[in-house]
Amino acid sequence: MPDTIRTRVAIIGAGPAGLLLSHLLAASGIESVVIDARTRESIESTIRAGILEQGTVELLESSGASSRVRIDGNRHEGIELRFAGEGHRIDFAAQIGRAVWLYPQHEVLKDLIAARLAEGQDLRFGARAERIEDADTDRPRVVCVDADGAPFEIEADFVVGADGSRGVARAAVTGSRAGGYSREYPFAWFGILCEAPPSSQELIYSNSPDGFALISQRSDIVQRMYFQCDREDDTAAYTEEQLWEELQRRVPGTTLKEGPIFQRDILRFRSFVAHRLLDNRVALIGDAAHTVPPTGAKGMNLAVADVVILERALRALLQENDSRLIEAFPDAALKRIWKAQHFSWWMTNMLHLTPETSEFDRMRQLGELRTVVESDAGRTYLAEAYTGWPLAGL
Ligand code: DHB
Prior knowledge:
- This protein is an alpha/beta fold.
- The protein is 36% helix and 29% strand.
- The chain has 12 helices and 21 strands.
- The strands form 4 sheets. Strands 7-6-15-16-17-14-18-21 form an 8-stranded mixed sheet, sandwiched between helices. Strands 9-3-2-13-20-19 form a 6-stranded mixed sheet.
- Helix 1 runs parallel beside helix 6, helix 1 runs parallel beside helix 9 and helix 9 packs antiparallel against helix 10.
């Protein structure tokens, strides 16, 4: 017989969604076990997006999950949209009095892991979930293999799939890994990290005749930049000089400050929303439930919003035996998920060129961008969506 661990909530996945959920549940006195197939080092070093919505920052801080975010993170009160050779600032502070923070996802993960371990959380790295069993009963189980290959099981009152788009939970809830609404994009992002001073104080999202580029930052000495590339591109296919040429051409009007490029990656992306987010005692959150294209940096923020809704529903279910909120969880979460899906799709379409983009489409895109930057309503919509709609009940 494999070892069986008994807990209240079994959480598959130690990404932002799984770790934050276990942190908030613990604050309410609900114990959980978190497992992840990856090592701690790999989780803490994987490069992801860097923008946190204001609500995400407030929650990380007020819940004690991260005390560093406001100290080491950088508050940004606007972004620049660049097109037709002109830059247009969207002033979040002036439009709606809100802001975002540049604080990379892996820093959030370091904070969350440290906070969980300091509180004695049962957090197992290198432990892979193989399948979920008895999902239709009140004692669902996660069948797992530990870092040494030994089988074990977690028996819980509730199982949460926070194991990303390639995890086992999505298929367990929807019936298949592809069980959702989805959309592909005929391009990808080429991302670089370089050692250089910032080229701009705020992020630049640029629509250029040569395609999209995003000029982001990491610190005074490290910068993050992306440019639109082919899905089949290879990181090794470009010399450093060619990478700077590609980036530079796409932000006409700005001279980028160049420096050694020490990391390159290609991000292939899609839009996806699972057909089902709940199957009796198993729920999906974060990338297991949905993925968004990176334009607008909604991925982790959307995971945080799922957690807020699910955590409250689990408290009602596990502490008061009230199942109304858990039954309402999918509809409550999906409202924001589809707003964020729309925003990410819209930003992506407005800023990228596709092989099919006609002259008409190109001119229409510029008209769309002008509609946004020259209208108070347009700028306000972008500012609201980018900084994040209020989190339910916070
Ligand atoms: C970053 C990534 C994004 O997708 C985005 O919209 C903004 C910033 C980043 O990695 O810095």
